[in-house]
Amino acid sequence: MLMSRFFIHNVFILFILAHVVFADPVQRFPKPDFESGYERPILQTPDPRALTLEYLDVFVLVAALSLASYFALRKRSRRHIFVLMVFSLIYFGFWRKGCICSIGSVQNVVYALFSHAYAIPLTVVAFFAVPLIFTLFFGRTFCAAVCPLGAAQDVVVLKPIALPGWLNQMLGIIPYLYLALSVLFAATGAGFLICRYDPFVGFFRFGASFNLILFGAFMLLLGTVVARPYCRFLCPYGVLLNWMSRLSRKHLSITPSDCINCRLCEASCPFDAINKPVEAELHEKREKSIRRLSFYLVLTPVIILASGWGGSLLHIPLSRSHFSVRLAKEIKLQDEGKLRLATDETDAFRASGKSTSELYAEARDIQRRFKVGGWIFGGFLGLVFSLKLISLSVFRKQEIYEADRGDCYSCGRCFSYCPVGKEGVDLEKLKEKAEDKAKFG
Amino acid sequence: MAEKTRREFLKSGANTAAALAVGGVAGLAIGIADRGKLVWQLDPELCIQCEKCATNCVLPESAVKCVHSYSMCGYCDLCSGYLEPGAKSRDTGAENQLCPTGAIQRTFIEDPYFEYQIDKELCIGCGKCVKGCGAFGNGSLYLQVQHDRCLNCNECAIARACPAQAYKRVPAETPYILRGEEAGRYAASI
Questions:
Q1: What is the ipTM of this complex?
Q2: Do B26 and A109 touch (CB under 8 A)?
Q3: Which of A26, A208, B105, B147 could be joined to A48 by an S-S link, Cβ 3.0–4.6 Å?
Q4: pTM for this prediction
Q5: Is residue B84 domain-shared with residue B158, that is, in the same domain?
Q6: Are residues B101 and B182 part of one domain?
């Protein structure tokens, strides 16, 4: 009670002070009456980039996606894809400075859906949805030749090595975590993680913080041997594209007609996205697989619940990423006398005339959102983990060499390796050779 | 054969469902979408002149610069936005200027009035003059994001660092938050 009275008193004094100091500052030194016929200059306010140019960006996006799909599925030309990719790198990367991009637009959409204060621009919705729709029809041609981040990494692929399968699978979980975390941050209004840690945007702008430049340089350097590391092991938009591509109506195929299992394309993909023939029967008895599968299916809800609970436990540390929660904490510590130091943030808050209880209520609301979000965040990760377990335990029969629908970027590197349809190639001989190799190792 | 058609049917169904899902999310977003464009701007009423605008922009030279609402200026000889607090004399000597880059040009008009203009080439957006002007003057000097320079990053790096949370997304038709008579320029469209 005493506390609140003291507080009201303080606010009252601040209020009066504010009126004395800030109200109508013009009156402090009235505008002079010039006698010399002086005319005051006009304040220059340069306009932002025109809206029509934003629509032009969307047009270029659609055109590039159409061309990329045509080159990958019909024309089957790596060279054309490469040229288009370099164009996209220049246009969306260096010319448009990397903003807005489809990867980041995920956050704008989520933020718009969860915050009433933000109205998302139409062009941003287009950047989010159009590549996904294209992927539903033609596979991930967006990754092949339109995404500037993908292009930046694709041009530095020099001597790609194949990663061991288990490592690929393990690292492949990170994008799901990154997506879930950025969606959680965007939904709670804590900020745009994907943009904050974009390793390549610094190169597009020729300037970024030292750490980001270091991160970007590391990614590009790593990218010379581990092809497209950001796309494969970080990109959150890639998760959505992966889902869409699995369901796509059409998709790039390595061979123009029928695969003859000549094994020539086996090592052509730098992203380990070619599925090799597997004989399913060899591995184990049917009963055993069914028993394991049903065990995993029963385990799935348990994993989801446990991981959701784990996620909700993280709501306190996670909520500290939000400005208001951090500020509320500082203000609280100051008011309790545990923090003597005033920061710019606390000074600005005290000068704003907003009440502490208002701030605390806001912080509590944000923490509550993080708690609900934490459940969903954890549950989603649990689901991803379970599905991964299930997919790893199910043996699918694979008879030919085929691009993995989810992981393939439709870059077209494998085209030139396929001998089918080429002149002067004895397919029968190739087939025999491959069979011999398979037999004798 | 029957099996294959069933699989194909399921697949095409899943494809359509995914398309509807994407369309649904996009539709929801479009429902609340802004037809225009949003740009970053800082509210001078909230600004506390912490100098972070000068250093936190992704551009090597910040997109934030000082602007001057001439309609509010008192044209004082003793300008607390131009002169160092303990300045020895009221002239254009570098040692007397508050601006670290000498970006404010002081021109004599008539006794006793002086005009102050910001040289945007030199201004780094530190807001030292804004603090000076706000403390004793009319507050005609203040910071604004210059839209010929701003890249309109999806997450503005200065907005993130701003201790007063003075940054917000504003419609591109009204891209400045101005003071004095200059504010009227955008008031009509709001």
A1: 0.89
A2: yes
A3: B147
A4: 0.89
A5: yes
A6: yes
